[in-house]
Design a protein that fits this description.
Blueprint: E1 4-6, H1 15-23, E2 34-41, E3 45-53, H2 65-68, E4 71-73, E5 76-80, E6 86-89, H3 91-104, H4 112-125, E7 137-146, E8 159-168, E9 179-183, H5 201-216, E10 221-225, E11 233-236, E12 240-245, E13 250-253, H6 262-273, E14 278-281, H7 285-294, E15 297-304, E16 308-317, E17 320-322, H8 330-343, E18 354-356
Parallel strand pairs: 1-3, 9-10, 9-16, 13-14
Antiparallel strand pairs: 2-3, 2-8, 4-7, 5-6, 5-7, 6-18, 7-8, 10-11, 12-13, 12-15, 15-16, 16-17
Helix pairs in contact: 3-4, 6-8
Enzyme class: transferase
GO molecular function: L-isoleucine-2-oxoglutarate transaminase activity; L-leucine-2-oxoglutarate transaminase activity; L-valine-2-oxoglutarate transaminase activity
InterPro entries: Aminotrans_IV, Aminotrans_IV_CS, Aminotransferase-like, B_amino_transII, BCAT-like_C, BCAT-like_N, BCAT_family
Length: about 350
């Protein structure tokens, strides 16, 4: 287990400042008083784990991550329950996904127990930052990057793992309403043998130009198709997708070139418990279009750690569009409510998903 030292921030945010932040946290704009850091080298392994005051990093201009993007991250949340306790949602699944991402990016693997211990330790130190209003939470961002100052093209021999935290309100400022989606037919997110299943910044960087395209067409998010045939739906810029049919079954794109979302797998389990068979398979854009037009597809929704579960409405592309639901679907909202109730301790966690921190 990592031996973590703690040096308290000598100038933490005042209670008044913190109360103002927690009253309107936004998303990813305010950060807690501390951060966790540990480093890896071939000779010493993971060492010098420490919690210190949150602040800027000092990096050599030749730091490898700045040139070759050898970097991965995770996204998760801490939740305040009514009794004041603090919990995280499926943290060991995040830890195992980071192990898989590490292997794909030629980074050292941080054992799952150390990952969870690191996250728990930062949450414990910054516990006062965990919101207690509504469905606000503390967003947690563990990340790992190549920190060796070296311009040769090879895996870094010095790697840094960090955890930072940010109080989070609603991801979409407009509230829960169906998203409009733009289908990009020019850009793809990942290909076979690529990094699509790894949670690495490069995947998100490659999605940004397509997201700009979506916004330019008046849409909220972008939909990516597969790179091989340009026919099969993969995922949105940062969320997994589901399609509910009139007969009750749900289809979600199969993994391999898409991110294996932690929320995605939870939604599959919840849906199956409600009696909805879930098919993980290739799903073509033609099936989506025709399913909406015929009424065979009755609800479309997306999910992710930040947005939880979000309904999808209109799909637009160059030369056409199909209109989905104008209001959130019944199953979409039922799944969202069940998941959120488990996360905030309002419903029994029969799946064993929640991990108590404090």
């Amino acid at each position: 287990m990592l031996d973590i030292t703690t040096t308290p921030n000598p100038s933490p945010r005042s209670d008044a400042d913190l109360a103002a932040v927690l009253a309107a946290p936004g998303f990813g704009t305010h950060f807690t008083d501390h951060m966790l850091t540990t480093e890896w080298t071939p000779g010493d392994g993971w060492h010098d784990a420490r919690i210190t005051a949150y602040g800027p990093l000092s990096l050599d201009p030749a730091t490898a991550v700045l040139h070759y993007a050898q970097e991965i991250f995770e996204g998760m949340k801490a939740y305040r329950h009514a009794d004041g306790s603090v919990w995280t949602f499926r943290p060991f699944e995040n830890a195992e996904r980071m192990v898989r991402s590490s292997a794909r990016l030629a980074l050292p693997q941080l054992p799952a127990e150390d990952f969870v211990h690191a996250v728990d330790s930062l949450v414990a130190v910054d516990e006062r930052w965990v919101p207690s209003l509504g469905e606000d939470s503390l967003y947690l961002r563990p990340f790992m990057f190549a920190s060796e100052a070296f311009l040769g093209v090879r895996p870094s021999q010095h790697v840094t793992f960090m955890v930072i935290a940010s109080p989070a309100g609603a991801y979409f400022k407009g509230g829960i309403k169906p998203l409009s989606l733009w289908l990009t037919e020019e850009y793809t997110r990942a290909g076979r043998g690529g990094m699509g299943a790894a949670k690495t910044g490069g995947n998100y960087a490659s999605s940004l130009v397509a997201q700009q395209e979506a916004i330019a067409h008046g849409c909220d998010q972008v939909v990516f198709l597969d790179s091989a045939e340009g026919r099969y739906v993969e995922e949105l810029g940062g969320m997994n997708m589901y399609f509910l049919y009139a007969d009750g079954r749900i289809v979600t794109p199969e993994t391999g070139t898409i991110l294996e979302g932690i929320t995605r797998s939870a939604i599959i389990e919840l849906a199956q418990k409600l009696g909805h068979p879930v098919e993980e398979r290739k799903f073509s854009i033609e099936e989506w279009r025709e399913g909406i037009r015929s009424g065979e597809i009755t609800e479309v929704f997306a999910c992710g750690t930040a947005a939880v579960v979000t309904p999808v409405g209109r799909l637009e592309w160059d030369g056409g569009s199909v209109e989905g639901r104008s209001e959130p679907g019944e199953l979409t909202m039922a799944l969202r409510q069940q998941l959120v109730d488990i996360q905030f301790g309002r419903a029994d966690d029969t799946f064993g998903w929640m991990h108590r921190v404090l």
